[in-house]
């Protein structure tokens, strides 16, 4: 499975993830977002999305490990990938038919969003 992780770049940016190489993805409290975190598996592909003024997908990452010992707060460790050559704005994403039913468009406040393979590929390769 693939996921999009939202972050406010002034709090934690993709550039910081690249510098640190790995981090635990913390601070998620929305029940649906927590459920999406708990569904992650080692090796799942991720898109890092900057919220706030940017509102764009900026980089890739992957899941290093998932610790479900506390199901209310799954501990997901992620590793940085590469910057997206041409970041995709939310406006561009909303124009794509493949995102019309996506929680990324329909539940704008959800911070952990599942992506199907076509959505992931479009963000990274178009």
Low-pLDDT runs of 5+ residues are none
How much of the sequence is in beta strands? 35-45%
- End-to-end CA span: 20 Å
What topology, given as strand order, has the largest sheet? 2-5-4-3-1-6
CATH class: Alpha Beta
Task: List SSEs in N-to-C order.
Answer: EHEHEEEHHEH
**Overall body shape:** globular
What integer value in Å does the Rg equal?
13 Å
Query: What CATH architecture would you give?
Result: Roll
The CATH homologous superfamily is named: ph1033 like domains
Main β-sheet description:
6 strands, mixed
Number of helices: 5
Instruction: Provide mean pLDDT, rounded.
Output: 96
Structural class: alpha+beta
- Count the beta strands: 6
Helical content stands at: 25-40%
What count of structural domains?
1
CATH T-level topology: ph1033 like fold
